[in-house]
Amino acid sequence: MGSISSEKLENEKIEFNLMKSLIKMKFDDIDFTRVESYFDAVDNIRLLNKLNSIKEVNTTQEITLKNFFKKGTNDKIINEIQASFSDCIGKKMAIVIHLLQNKLKLTEIISSSKTYSRKHFIYYLKNNYSFNKMSAINKYLNPYTDELNLSTNNESDLDYIQILSKLVEISKKEVV
């Protein structure tokens, strides 16, 4: 991507120099065929810059579920977590998110992000981009601290205990 930026900068310098030399000419001395070629060159440079910016947009990384997990997390573990918990909703999904992020420290979810938020994590975990039941999950997770808000103590909640033991089991598996 650095080469695209340097090309863009070089093209802008050329465009600037063309305009500067055009301004320096006296009106009587202007050869209008040269002016047209200057403007054609400037238009071509602008077109090149647009094409380069389109290339930059197209080369951005596609987001997957793996992007939410910390580097070094094995694909098999991620796939098993997805297989085990993609059907969870509401309180159970809130517990999964809390445990992955705060207890096991396997995920990095950024609450204010437009691409790495809790909502996007759930989309990729469920492989369902039309999932819209976030309020049921948000009811149990504090949006500012990502702390779990259960009506009972976390360690005595049956769902919490089951999900924690399953996640610990998955995360400790040896990868062959």
Walk me through what this model shows.
- The protein has 176 residues and is mostly helical.
- It has 2 domains: 2-58; 65-171, no CATH class.
- It has 7 helices and no strands.
- The protein has helices spanning 2-24, 32-58, 75-85, 90-103, 118-126, 134-138, 158-171.
- Helix 1 (2-24) packs antiparallel against helix 2 and helix 4 crosses helix 7.
- The longest helix has 27 residues, at 32-58.
- The radius of gyration is 27 Å and the shape is elongated.
- It starts with a helix and ends in a 5-residue tail after the last helix.
Quick description:
With 176 residues, the protein is mainly alpha-helical. The chain has helices at residues 2-24, 32-58, 75-85, 90-103, 118-126, 134-138, 158-171. It is elongated, with a radius of gyration of 27 Å.
SSE map:
Blueprint: H1 2-24, H2 32-58, H3 75-85, H4 90-103, H5 118-126, H6 134-138, H7 158-171
The coarse overall form would be: elongated
Give helix % range.
55-70%
Order of helices and strands: HHHHHHH
* pLDDT averaged over residues: 78
Strand content: under 5%
Distance between the termini: 36 Å
Number of domains: 2
Q: Sheet bearing the most strands, described?
A: none
Beta-strand segment tally: 0
Q: What Rg do the Cα atoms give?
A: 27 Å
Discrete helix count:
7
Low-confidence sequence ranges:
none
